[in-house]
Amino acid sequence: MLRVATDVGGTFTDFVAFDEQTGILTASKASTSADIIAGSRKPVIVAGRGARWSGAGDAVLRLAERIGALILTSLMAKNWLSEDEFHLGISGTYATRTAMQLCEEADCVIAIGASLNRFTTEQGYLYPNAKFVHIDSKPHVMMSGGRAAECYVQSDARAGVEALEALLAKRSFKQTGYRTGEVRERLANAWDDPRKYEIEPGNVDPREVILALDEAVPANVNLFTGNGAAAAFSNMLFRRRRPLVQPGYFFSCIGQMLPAAMGGVVATGNQPAILVDGDASVMMHLAEFDTMVRYEMPLLIVVMNNQMLGAEYYKLDAHKMNAALSCIATPDLGAVATGFGGRGRLVRSIPELRTAVAEWVAKPGPMMIDVRIATNVITLPYRRIHYGLDE
């Protein structure tokens, strides 16, 4: 038996018994965590990769239903458990305004296999009035800002959640919490972005691109998303649950996800996948498309191409500086892909996009779709950070 600490208020004062062979919590004084949850009225569950890897999905859903919790995930667990009607999407920077408003009202956060870093907690401001119960397999994980959870439990995610749910069931605890008709109505249109932009001729609204892709690409196709300015469109608007959804996050460094997605295709046994990334990122490893062709990888690359370094463009624009310095023209990347021996298309409308995607779905293989997106459509996170807008 392994003695595992439960951290209360930053000091190790309680213990649970954890079986190293089975990974199951066999006996527990984790009533502290149950007390915190039972004393809450607006609980939120934040699930991360650790919860997904441990197979804790059903246990998380049962706990959420019992305590009336909203469900959010970290970026790395994007779209996991999204079938739940009270799923809010990603916790933190990529949250919708509705999600942020609901999270700000939370009085309890149960983090399961999630580090609760500065992005997940929106620099510590997202849950200002909440107490935290933190379940993780590591001996201890400090949250954003060096804060310790009110109750930290070292445990396999699935075992910990199952034990916690069983303890609450034994107490006959069950509440409605956030799971009301009013909240359901607020969530109905939470992902809609009502802000209007004038779309330049020959370009497409990037928000419509992601919505069309999510609908047109079958749910059994894996999804990889890149980093950089365009990533927020993908990370906020892709909502279908898929076997694998893997966002890229390499210390805020663009240009890494094309080779990473190729590795992901190989690691999943050559299962079909789609990568959605920006033009600058794809250009950095464009020669690797030849590798895709030689190995006949069933990978579709959709390039969100605004012909500029988006992060730099919007920062310069917000500070009234010469944003044109960040504009870099690209060739027809669809034609480049064809030149490498694969398939490619240049797309300037949603109907053209749907036709190109349908071609790939019918016969998955190395293909690149160069979608020319409007430069004046700004992601919601960038509106918040650089322009002080939240709609």
Q: What does this entry look like structurally?
A:
There is one protein chain. This protein has two domains: 2-187, TPP-binding domain (Rossmann fold, 3-Layer(aba) Sandwich); 206-387, Rossmann fold, CATH 3.40.50. 34% of the residues lie in helices and 20% in strands. The protein is built from 15 helices and 15 strands. The strands form two sheets. Strands 3-2-1-9-8-7-4-5-6 form a nine-stranded mixed β-sheet, with helices on both faces. A six-stranded parallel β-sheet has the order 11-10-12-13-15-14, with helices on both faces. Helix 14 links the parallel strand 14 (343-347) and strand 15 (367-372). Mean pLDDT is 89; it is low at 1-29.
- Lateral arrangement of strands in the main beta sheet: 3-2-1-9-8-7-4-5-6
Q: How many structural domains does the protein architecture include?
A: 2
Helix amount, in percent? 25-40%
What is the number of beta strands? 15
The main pleated sheet reads as:
9 strands, mixed
Number of helices: 15
Inertia-based shape: globular
**CATH architecture level-2 label of the largest domain:** 3-Layer(aba) Sandwich
Oligomer: single chain
Query: What is the element string, with H for helices and E for strands?
Result: EEEHEHHEEHEEEHHHEHEHEHHEHHEHEH
- CATH class call of the largest domain: Alpha Beta
CATH topology of the largest domain: Rossmann fold
- How much of the sequence lies in strands comes to 15-25%
Classify the secondary structure makeup into a structural class: alpha/beta
